[in-house]
Amino acid sequence: MNITNKTIIVTGGASGIGRELTIEAMRRGASVAIADLNIEGVLATKELAEAVATAGATCSAHQLDVSNLEQWQSFRDAVLTEYGHIDGIINNAGITFAGTAEATDYRQYEKVMSINFMGMVYGSKELLPHLHQRPEAFIANVSSVCGLFAMKKQSAYCASKFAIRGFTESLAQELIGSPILVSSIHPGHIGTDIVINARNSGNMAGDLPSEAEQEAIAKYFKDYGLSPAKAAEIILDGLKNNQRKILVGKDAIRGDRLSRLMPQTYANKINKLVP
Ligand SMILES: NC(=O)c1ccc[n+]([C@@H]2O[C@H](COP(=O)([O-])OP(=O)(O)OC[C@H]3O[C@@H](n4cnc5c(N)ncnc54)[C@H](O)[C@@H]3O)[C@@H](O)[C@H]2O)c1
To answer: Domain containing 69: what range?
Structure first.
């Protein structure tokens, strides 16, 4: 799927992977409708992306809570009015949540599922009728390595990311033979603000490390992951090559292989590294 001259949507475009996806897509000649809860972040992404865009590629900034169906419908209509059609969507917006299953309450599970899972379901289903009208189109849903194998103290996040993978792989089978490519994206450790954003939003439960330790963990996470710009390149290359499963980073490739080769023991080994 070549995105040059296509019109695409990127959710979660205010920061991290979504920001870099927008920048790279516009560099490759796509026009992008950028959506996020954080409109200031979206506007900053717009400015950065416009500075490197191929001639003819444009972008628009939208505030959207992906967990709200009515907002999705208004957003989709605004994009159709502005561009006339939509060729693809990257459902990237997401949050993480840290805490044992015992400490995580039902409302917290609902919050994570409504943003990560239902946000992706709304984006996919609200766009499908329009994507069917295009000569070629795509739906790319950002899961995680936590949609391939599970980490402790991440039951809400892992459940949402396994759910994204299940939905996406099922939809991909339904659309075989159609012009719509459906891809499940599995990033490994990417150096973004996702852990800082979780702290700032109170997305944590149970016995928490001290403030200083939390800060150190968030800093380590941001400083030592694969760069989000490289992640965006890998994702867009994967779509270009019509990949249905896109593994982002060496850790994702290794984790995917090992979890299939050592299904009984791999998760134990990985989780020994989790504090
Ligand atoms: N960073 C990683 O290591 C990693 C690994 C695997 C998967 N992922 C996934 O990649 C995606 C992007 O994460 P990131 O690392 O760039 O994090 P990030 O926190 O930098 O970006 C996430 C974006 O989603 C937006 N968002 C959150 N809730 C929203 C809502 N209700 N409606 C609209 N937008 C909302 C945030 O405002 C933010 O801009 C997420 O789905 C995440 O789960 C990240």
So the answer is: 7-271
